[in-house]
C-alpha cells in the first residue's frame, strides 16, 4: 500500500538527519580505532631487534594436579549409568535362550563345536586354496583355542576373573610397580587383568597343566595384546619357584581354588618356600575357597606352623561377583611387623659409644625409661641431650 505524499515527505525529513548522525558516528569510531590498527614504533622495534638475553623471573604459586589413577573396582555410579544406557536403548534382559537367538539378525550363529568343525575342515577361517594352505599366519593357533573352548574349562563364567582381580587388587592396595605371583594361573582368566594393570615383567605364574599353558601363551596373551608385558609363566607342579629367581620379593601371592587339588604336604612345602619371598609387612598371601591344609591340623597347630614360617593369619574375606550370583571366600596371611633395620648412622653412633665405654643411644634410652638411679639417670640424660 502506497504512503500519502505528506507521510513520504515526513519520512524523508526524519531519515536524512538520522543518516547524517550515523555517518558522523562511524567516522568518529574509525578515527578512534585507527591508531591501534597501525604498528607502533615499539612493536616495530621488537619485531626486528634480536631477542634480548635478559630474563625476568616471576614467582607464581601453582597447584600441581596429578591425574588420578584409573579405578580398579566398578563403582555403583558406573552400574547405574550402564543400566540407564540399557534402558534408553530398550535392551532388557532376555527371558529365554530362544529369545536371544531371535535377535541375531545378520549373524551366523554357530556353537563352538560347529566353529571348530569348520576351522578344521577348511584349515582356517578364510578358506585358503590347497596350494596356499600354509599361509602367512604369524602364530598358528589350534582351533580349540580359536573357538575359546578353554573359557569353559573351569566350571564358572570366564567373567569371574575380573571379580577376583578387583578384590585382590583392592585388598592388597596393589600398585602397577608391585610384584605378583599366582599359583595356578590356568589360562589367565584372572591373570590377564593383573598383567594389564601391572608394569612389564611384574606378573609371575606357576602352572602345571599343559593345555592351560598353551591357551595362556598361544592365544590369550596375543589376543589381548599383552605380549609386550612379558609375564613370566613357568610350568611346574612341585612348588618349585627357583626359576623366578632367588632375589625376587612379592607384594602379592595368591592361589584361587588351587590348593583344593594339591596334597596338604605339598601346600605346606610351597608356603615354606614362599614365606621368605614375601615382602616384609606389606606382602600378602591370599588363598581362596578353603584352607583345609590348615584346618585339618587344628587351629593351634596351624597357627604354630604359620608362626614358624613367619606368617600371620589376618582374617577371612568374601567378595561378590558383579555379573552373576557367586561369591568367593579368601583367607589372608602376611608377615608380622618386623623391627626396623638400623641405619648406617645409628650403627656408627653405637660403634663410637662402645669404643668409648658409653652405652649406645638405644641402650641409654632403655635404661632411662626403666627408671635408673639418680646418678646414672642424670648422666644418661646429659648423654642423650648431647652435653656429654
From TrEMBL:
<dbReference type="InterPro" id="IPR029063">
    <property type="entry name" value="SAM-dependent_MTases_sf"/>
</dbReference>
<feature type="compositionally biased region" description="Low complexity">
    <location>
        <begin position="356"/>
        <end position="369"/>
    </location>
</feature>
<feature type="region of interest" description="Disordered">
    <location>
        <begin position="341"/>
        <end position="369"/>
    </location>
</feature>
<protein>
    <recommendedName>
        <fullName>Methyltransferase type 12 domain-containing protein</fullName>
    </recommendedName>
</protein>
<feature type="compositionally biased region" description="Acidic residues">
    <location>
        <begin position="344"/>
        <end position="355"/>
    </location>
</feature>
<feature type="region of interest" description="Disordered">
    <location>
        <begin position="53"/>
        <end position="73"/>
    </location>
</feature>
